[in-house]
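FAQ: What does the model actually see?

It sees only this:
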Amino acid sequence: MKTPDRPKLPERPGVWGVRRSTPQLKDDGHLALSTWVRLLKAHSLMLRELRRQMPHDLTVPQFDVLAQLSREREGMTAGQLTRELLVTAGNVTGIVDRLEQLRLVQRRRRPEDRRAVQVRLTPRGRRLMSQVLPVHRRQVQSLLAPLAPGELARLRDLLGLLGHHLVVRGGSPALPHPPSSRPRA
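And it is asked to produce this:
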């Protein structure tokens, strides 16, 4: 299988300031701030493109909930969705309400704890996700195509390491295991 031609890096820094460089030994925070800004820009641009291509009039948050539920055959509680998606319980409730109206998810009381509600995909939701997940995967792959596979793997590993350290620092339960012990997506 032929790999796509990689775009040539600009000769001079542009908006992205793309250049291969080594970090300076003396840094007063500019490198960290520059990295943060580039992460935000890349995230915003990717999200904007994915939003344009979102199928079936779904919003990105709705898609995120459906994608998370598609990984869990038995469904998840609202609390589990909140932790996995890093959003507030109120946000999850509103998103699930709308997805329930669309008959893509259903809520069921858990038999072992009637106070807890399990959210799961309906057959209609499963069919939809079986169609849109492969398309979404190809869209993301296309957006990340300028990176060689080794660069992409390195970026994933570095972001996983950063995420782990941020979780440890903040005590968030979203990522309970270090990146090396988690299954690779």
